[in-house]
User: Which sequence fits this backbone?
């Protein structure tokens, strides 16, 4: 039986990750990994090639055309046609949609499980402006993945997960915390 946490996690994965472009022509478009090149001119050429392929398929706007929040509005439905997600998505949903068309995970929804074991002597560092933070431990990637258990590590105390033994400790970020309490 799935717990509510796992049910929500699997629902989010299925709704945000199962994006398929239906047009067969778009199955061969360049993806993000194809555009990761050192040479800026070569990268610009690949982006222009991507924009050209998308324009030929009937998509006037790509993720690379977004310059401000005003660019995050779809063209709207055409008369007599059922609107697609491309036509009607706005705001953050449009940004994510355009990103997924280009193979870019805009909101970085990938796994955040550490790829090493944190020990009491060498815990996984958790960045924070405060002296403590709540951390959700989901196990060790590829070895011991479990339901999320919430821990409260501090700058002085290491928190250890009772399920997998993973250890976390706060590494305080020095700098402007964004809000001063001196009113």
Assistant:
């Amino acid at each position: 039986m799935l717990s509510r946490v796992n049910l929500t996690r699997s629902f989010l994965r299925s709704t945000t990750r199962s994006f398929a472009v239906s047009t067969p022509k778009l199955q061969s478009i360049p993806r993000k990994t194809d555009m990761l090149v050192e040479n800026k001119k070569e990268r610009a050429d690949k982006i222009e090639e991507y924009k050209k392929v998308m324009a030929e398929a009937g998509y006037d706007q790509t993720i690379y055309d977004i310059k401000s929040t005003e660019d995050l509005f779809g063209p709207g439905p055409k008369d007599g046609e059922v609107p697609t997600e491309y036509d009607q998505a706005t705001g953050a949903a449009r940004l994510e949609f355009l990103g997924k068309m280009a193979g870019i995970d805009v909101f970085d929804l990938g796994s955040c499980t550490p790829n090493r074991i944190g020990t009491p002597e060498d815990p996984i560092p958790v960045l924070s402006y405060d002296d403590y933070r709540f951390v959700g431990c989901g196990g060790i990637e590829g070895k011991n993945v479990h339901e999320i258990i919430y821990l409260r590590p501090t700058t002085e105390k290491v928190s250890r997960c009772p399920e997998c033994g993973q250890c976390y400790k706060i590494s305080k970020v020095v700098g402007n915390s964004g809000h001063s309490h001196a009113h």
Notes: Residues 4-101 form one domain. The chain has two domains: 4-101, 124-172. Strands lie at 124-128, 135-140, 144-151, 159-160, 167-172. Residues 40-56 form the longest helix (17 residues).
